[in-house]
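Subgroup meeting minutes
Present: P.N., E.W., G.H.
Scribe: E.W.

1. P.N. recapped why we're keeping a running log of single-chain structure predictions: easier to compare across weeks, and new members can see raw inputs and outputs side by side.
2. G.H. added today's entry (257 aa).
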Amino acid sequence: MRTAKVRKINIPEERVQVGNGQTIGTRDEQDDYFASVTTSLGTLSVVADGISGLRNGRMSSMMAVNTFVQEFGKLDRQDEIAEYLAETAVKSNRLILQHLNGQGGGTTLAAVVLSEGYMYYGAVGDTLITIFRKGEFIAVNSKHTAETLLEEKVLAGEMTMQEAAASPVRHQLTNYLGYEGFEQMEIADAPYRLYPGDLVLLCSDGIYEALTEIELESILKKHDHPQDMADAMIEKIGAKGLRNQDNATVVILQEMQ
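Output recorded in log:
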């Protein structure tokens, strides 16, 4: 299994600390892409997981992340962040479709903006955003996969948990960028209030399918800096040596004030 050592991003210490890590796993190509950037407005972090079953997964994830970074640079008002997330998702979807020109491609994407003690987010697909606060995980976004629909059927009594778990389509994405039927990005009605010490994690499925919640919690509690946490996650995945390890990417942000 090959791992990529990603350079530490230098973010002003007084507001937010950022760490990141990535591994190609056992795949032939790295379809995940990510970026973090800080402006006077705040810190943006984006993780996209290109759909590996489609030939242009890497291109799709790169194009989406770069579009979010470029548009964020034009932003200077906090009350425009939610609109920025929604409009940039639509723009990214359109650009990917235009570039693909009928060829297969697409990507998940999760983006957060930390500004003045608040977290704004947008997500599409199954890349997850989680807040780790005082030893507890707080789920932020939902998975846009058939698994979510199957869980709803279980709750409605339309199928059993065993049937849902055995479904061959449970991991199939129901919404992503580069999709003709793209629906709007999931965006919170109001930003999340963050507190000193809070950790915000953006994880592609290669992270949360390889590491248990107990393992993640242990790593987050053991280390002080987000970069050390991210490094430890990638090292843990490598040590497991899973035979079918997907691309895995994590970005961790820590609110300092």
